[in-house]
Write a structure and sequence with these properties.
Length: about 180
């Protein structure tokens, strides 16, 4: 977490939390969801405005955390902005490398350990890592399929509806 954010929390410790205004989709993109967007429908059916400003995304990435409930948030100064997850707290990129396969989170964290792999009823591949559960991006499924074929990962099946409780995260946090 940024030092400036830690200082803001100390200066203003009782700022109310914010819900519904930020979301993470299955491709690892962030979306702002203002009141009219929220009123138009749930995420991800109605996404909102995709955040494209690189410095803003980097700020979110550095201040992306979860609470004791498994609800993920962006610590924006003194305010926690709880976010909606389309699939998992992490979206993972996979690529073949000379030493096997490299995995990285949507925030740029390298994955050093894949503890298990999972397929849901839609055929989406999830990896349980030291950072938590992540969905492999659709654009990286060729490399991921090669890793599965090479028996680097042996996916088990699990219904998507069971994943949040099993892996300890909340897709749609509420106050």
């Amino acid at each position: 977490m940024d030092d400036i954010v830690k200082a803001a929390i100390k200066k203003w410790p009782n700022v109310p939390h914010c819900y519904g205004w930020l979301a993470l989709d299955a491709r690892g993109d962030w979306y702002l969801r203002d009141e009219p967007t929220q009123a138009a429908g749930p995420f991800p059916q109605v996404k909102g405005s995709r955040i494209e400003h690189d410095k803003f995304k980097e700020f979110i990435h550095r201040n992306y955390e979860h609470d004791e409930r498994g609800a993920w948030f962006f610590q924006n100064g003194p305010q926690r902005v709880y976010l909606q997850l389309e699939a998992a707290p992490w979206v993972l990129g996979v690529r073949a490398s000379a030493g096997g396969y490299e995995v990285m989170t949507h925030t740029g964290l390298p994955v050093r350990e894949v503890r298990s792999s999972w397929l849901d009823e839609q055929g989406r591949l999830f990896l349980d890592t030291e950072h938590g559960l992540g969905l492999v991006r659709s654009m990286d499924m060729d490399a991921a399929a090669d890793a599965v074929a090479a028996e680097v990962w042996t996916p088990q099946e699990m219904a998507f509806a069971d994943m949040p409780a099993h892996f300890g995260f909340v897709c749609q946090p509420t106050p």
